[in-house]
Amino acid sequence: MQYIFHLFSDEKGYAALPEAQRQAASGAYMAYTQALKDAGVWVAGDRLRPVSESTQIHVGTDGKTTVLDGPYADTKEQLAGYYIVDVPDLDEAIKWAARCPGASHGTVEVRAIWELPVPA
Description:
Blueprint: E1 2-9, H1 11-16, H2 19-38, E2 42-47, E3 55-59, E4 65-69, E5 78-86, H3 90-99, E6 107-112
Antiparallel strand pairs: 1-5, 1-6, 2-5, 3-4
């Protein structure tokens, strides 16, 4: 079963780190990604650009499209990246999520992916 890990962290906190600490954090994520790949459970994963570069789209009931450029909410943590893994069950997904570097300085949300049928 596939699960997505949403990684939430404080963008401002990361940006304020000295370069050596940012490089160490980057190395930890690279090692974690390699561990997922070595175990054969990695499906996908990427870091996201800052929330200030995001865009929100809303289509109202009148059919009008509204486009908003970020940032949107003054929150402590932002969606910073994701991993998709293919593991047997939630317990295994939780074990992998707990090993994610993001779990030690932010929040990792684990959600099962509701796979849609592929049209013929």
